[in-house]
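fyi for ur records
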Amino acid sequence: MRESFQKNKKGILLMLLSSICVCVGQLLWKLSAQYGILVMLAGFCFYGIGALVMLAAYRFGKLSVLQPMLSLNYVLSILLAAFVLKESITLWKCVGVLVIIAGVVLIAGGDEE
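which gave:
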């Protein structure tokens, strides 16, 4: 039981790292319209690293637990857009973020052998 939890925990952490890489890659794609092709290529690198980390994460957990973790991309995208691009965070975006986080926590914490 404990070994299964540690394995699942590793998969969840890798999936979170994958989400961060993918979101940074997408942000760099957005910024490449202003800053040029090198930023776009950096975006492809981050996105690719995120995909590879995601593949590694699948070795450490169940698909039904790990795949929903990717919905954290929405949360990270809103935060990056607010801090880097100075986009506004509305009340409805906050509610959506809370619903997504609650769902991820319920799915990640509710997996029992």
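Residues 19 and 72 are 7 Å apart (CA to CA). thats all i got for now
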